[in-house]
Design goal:
Shape of chain A: globular
Order of helices and strands of chain A: HHHHHHHEEHHHHHHHH
Strand order of the largest sheet of chain A: 1-2
Radius of gyration of chain A: 20 Å
Oligomer: homotrimer
CATH class of chain A: Mainly Alpha
Distance between the termini of chain A: 52 Å
CATH superfamily of chain A: Ammonium transporter AmtB like domains
Largest interface: A-B, 60 and 57 residues
Number of domains of chain A: 1
Largest sheet of chain A: 2 strands, antiparallel
Helix content of chain A: 55-70%
CATH topology of chain A: Ammonium transporter fold
Chain lengths: 396, 396, 396
């Protein structure tokens, strides 16, 4: 479990790399800054509010808060008793907290990539505080804290819905309220805005895949090696399916070898198998991942048609495939029911939309969401940070 | 073992980084695409064919297929029984499969770097399917599946021969059939073609070194901490020896501080100690690695003399030093015999040459191996992918 | 523990990335070369001398050498007996050696970044041999080998003083003897010399944070999951505190969003909680890290005022915050005394200053420390290595 925590931590570097690689070099420092402060603020906020909201112990199924665990997080030191008998000895209180905190920060990071290249730094960071500190943990408590979705039999192994679609809904609301980047949609056509570094994006996707071993493997929440290792296999085959699905779909639909769609296909496949990684066969994992790889391509095209400008494809990867994965678990997973899954998707979706809308809307009417046109054109790095992402001299 | 699997997975990012760093920026997307699809296709193919070929259970020692494990891989889900008593409880069926699948994909990745910058994408990917799905696992079954080499007392702890030299022979056959890059050898002189990013190559080598802890450490295939930790020490000292050997040899022979030879020296040293990491002393590991570092420099120079154009030095690292490491195990390793080692090198080498030649030759006469002269000059990125690896604006 | 060793290994990639990212592209190969050879030479030297000096068994408390462990390191192979009963079975002899060797090389790497862009390669590498082989292990033996500081009750959990401040003092002495880079301080004003790649620096900081989980987590030196997991929490919150402290301090003092100070703040926070990570509460960790983040900004400004040119802020991160963390442990840590902590800081500091001064001074008067003015202006890559760090063609 501690290893899993370290692997989930490395996902934050993965997100930072993917997002910096897929966006323009004039905004590189800005996006790295956001992706560095996201886990920092996310973890602190989760310690301040989130963990106690998400795991409230006995509660009414919708909202609760554990004063006890809040107190322990902040003021207990090396005394072993807080972990004595915790989780039947499967892992410790501290591991549980840190693992969940790393997860929580993920939900905000998903938003970060979608809204990049035009959101105000302060607006994004404030959104992160409230989304990770309040919205995400309340939704999470409905399932993982033993709330009403858990009682209804909703199945979400490692968070296709709870983490990924919650992040994805936030991203969708964000890009809708922000509007597209200048020049993205002109006279009915969509222009491709090239990312700055394909190697950086590739590094990011591999690190996310690696981190997913912790994300899904750790969610077995015990030392059952048979089940944990099966989960690693289904996770891997989901990623492989997504890559293959994304590759062939973009070959057919877009008539070119689109490496970006392979990379997003891998992430789509991973999101897709996250809901049911422990109750599907490897063959089903390959299939679910493959469908996710197909869906991600069409989702990207659809969003562009709707003039919803998602810089890195985060909504398509995390929301579209998060929903697909959750429903697929209802179809293929042993012991899961389609209707419970659908109900969970709708309940969490409604809450995430309302929560993220309220936060973004208040920010919009108070501090404003969007940087000035001039700042956007010049790039956020020179505007807000005064330095450039790359200062590479190419001598002749 | 699951940790080891994650570490071997990260080797694929290591290979991607090394190969993209050592090749030209006009082919960066192409090489990253290949190195991303290599584990994807490799793992799926290994699940489809490889694992059942490599571990056939009782068989004639040369060729076998386990229908049982094929069935389990694809259609079993979380039921624990497939791992009950597996490997005396040392690890599970799933871990075994995934770990071996990660290994298998490595053999193809080795080829990828050597043949870069001029091979057709489709040709390379088709080669990967057959090499990982059929050639590698059949050779592997001779030793690790309990075949005739195992009965002869051939020792290959983590695959200096089975993995690295098999990949290296494939690379050698590939670059021979492909011919050198345009402009590499002109009027009897060899021109240096600069890699695009030394930092990326360095990141790759460190990740490979890290992954080797899993590659070698995991090959102890049990939880014997004494032996596993000794293996980590011999692995590390092999890498150190290789770096030192590569550095001083290039200083003396090439009269300059050649960082590429240090990086390749590290990989050479790692390959060198892979065959006998569990039965040599740390001092012997440093020595074997040091000799590997010397050999890699001379091997690179020799290949250039023969006009065999290996973009990243893969043949020198994996084949030359794979052979050296296997033979060195016969000299230094407790309980290994030189003649058995030599016999294993020859048998696996013959099979790898024949196997890779057949695949590459059929591809050559059917779809063709090599891109057009124009595509090679323009770079494969703009030709096949339509995007560039780096889009970094350097404002003044 | 083996996992922790792998994580500490990855810190070397972290340092390489941070230092290459924060320095100019004309010196990229040079700094990567140094940071690759540092662990290589550091590990070999530590095996040759360091480990036996640092853990001499029974000794006079100041200087000792264990012939026994020297012999084992070099000439023992897979026989299990060297680990039988070692460390009460908590970890093996080999793990202990390798883990400590990875630590030791860290102390030299800290120096590498500070003195970059103008030190002679040979001078730096020779310094590393003596500092890792002799100075560091002797100082280390005073506490971790059971020497006089240990008997005095000095507390240094994972080396705020023993590792980080020892490295930091070496860096300070180095930059003082070397003098600033040409053009850094002109007519009383300090010019900002931009680093080549912010993404590379960010990757480095995340990898260091990850590695710190091994650095601190592994220092529990046992499988006590309660304490280990608490240490991961205090480590993480220290990093978060440092980021927040560095961010707000640079906002207030320098009136801009300085991402470099956030990155260095994270490292500062990690160094700050390293001395007492196992005996402080999470709240105290956040506070200690936060103060470290404040201190690192003022320390950077102070060094610039004194015309001590530290290319990457290594002295501010490792020395200033190493001292702060050690003293803070005396204030907040259960069972630690402020006076013992102060005494440890002074004793280790005096030894590190004297040791590093002697080595650097002898090198200065013999081979010389500094490259020629011409080489410095042209960049060390073209001068000493003949290649460039980046060869990226940007076609129009």
């Amino acid at each position: 479990m501690m290893l899993a925590t370290a692997l989930v931590f490395i996902m934050h570097l993965g997100f930072a790399s993917v997002e910096a690689g897929f966006t323009q070099s004039k905004n590189t420092v800005n996006i790295l800054f956001k992706n560095t402060l996201t886990p920092v603020l996310g973890i602190v906020t989760y310690a301040l509010l989130g963990f106690a909201l998400m795991y409230p112990g006995e509660f009414n199924g919708i909202l609760g808060f554990s004063m006890d665990s809040w107190d322990t997080i902040w003021f207990n030191s090396g005394s072993a008793d807080v972990s004595e008998g915790y989780a039947d000895g499967g892992y410790t209180f501290w591991t549980d907290f840190l693992y969940q905190a790393m997860f929580a920060a993920t939900a905000a990071t998903i938003v970060s990539g979608a809204v990049a290249e035009r959101i105000k730094l302060g607006a994004y960071l404030t959104f992160t505080l409230f989304y990770v500190g309040i919205v995400y943990p309340i939704i999470g408590s409905w399932k993982w804290g033993g709330g009403f979705l858990d009682e209804l039999g909703f199945v979400d192994f490692a968070g296709s819905t709870i983490v990924h679609s919650v992040g994805g809904w936030g991203a969708l609301v964000g890009i809708w309220l922000l509007g597209p980047r200048i020049g993205k949609y002109n006279n009915g056509s969509t222009s491709e805005i090239s990312g700055s570094s394909v190697p950086l994006a590739t590094i990011g996707v591999f690190l996310l895949w690696l981190g997913w071993f912790g994300f899904n493997g750790g969610s077995v929440l015990s030392a059952d090696p048979g089940l944990t290792s099966l989960v690693l296999v289904t996770t891997t085959l989901g990623a492989c399916g997504g890559a293959i699905g994304g590759h062939f779909t973009s070959m057919i639909v877009m008539k070119r070898i689109d490496f970006g769609m392979v990379l997003n296909g891998i992430l789509a496949g991973l999101v897709g198998v996250t809901a049911g990684a422990d109750i599907i066969t490897p063959f089903e994992a390959l299939f679910i991942g493959g469908v996710a790889g197909v869906l991600v391509v069409f989702s990207v095209l659809l969003l562009d048609k709707l003039k919803l400008d998602d810089c890195v494809g985060a909504v398509s990867v995390h929301l579209t495939c998060g929903i697909w994965g959750t429903l697929a678990t209802g179809i293929f997973g042993e012991g899961a029911s389609f209707m419970s899954q659908l109900y969970g998707v709708l309940a969490c979706g409604a809450a995430a939309i309302v929560g993220s809308f309220i936060i973004f809307y208040i920010l919009k009417v108070t501090m404003g969401l969007r940087v000035s046109e001039e700042a956007e054109k010049h790039g956020l790095d020179s505007e807000e940070h005064g330095i450039r992402g790359y200062t590479i001299l190419i001598e002749d």
